[in-house]
Design goal:
alpha+beta; 2 domains
């Protein structure tokens, strides 16, 4: 009888630990609200992979990267995305990336804020584009809270 009680206690502990996540999963399923899903995409997770926040009515920095297919240097798309995202996330959370495969071996980075476009910049000079885009974003949206 004692081993039967231990099994019941173990199952009860598992059910109690899993019930909050299961409740949120059921609630998100019925309400069609993806933000209620447990362990789903979060803003921190998106920022970690190089995607910032999106908010309707506010401008964001669109980072367009023309990536040469024959590019043979040590720079990879993931590395370039990480460098730009790490620079931007210390200043703003409103940005997103688009990579376009292009013929040749050239890499160009263009920053677009609303109707304003800054670039194209090679990776060695893209800091000037980041600064210009941040100034344009602040002028468009005002200071972030």
């Amino acid at each position: 009888m004692d081993s039967h009680g231990n099994v019941i206690r173990a199952i009860l502990v598992i059910v109690l630990l899993a019930s909050p996540a299961m409740t949120m999963r059921i609630a998100s399923n019925y309400s069609d609200n993806p933000y209620l899903q447990p362990l789903d995409l979060t803003e921190e997770g998106l920022a970690a992979v190089g995607e910032g926040k999106y908010r309707s009515g506010l401008a964001i920095i669109d980072v367009h990267v023309d990536w040469g297919r024959e590019q043979a240097g040590p720079l990879t798309q993931d590395r370039l995305r990480d460098v730009i995202a790490n620079t931007l996330k210390h200043q703003t959370e409103f940005y997103r990336f688009e990579f376009h495969d292009m013929p040749g071996g050239r890499i160009d980075v263009t920053f677009v804020v609303g109707p304003n476009s800054y670039g194209p910049f090679p990776p060695s000079r893209m800091v000037a584009g980041v600064n210009s885009a941040l100034v344009a974003l602040r002028m468009t949206n005002g200071p972030e809270r």
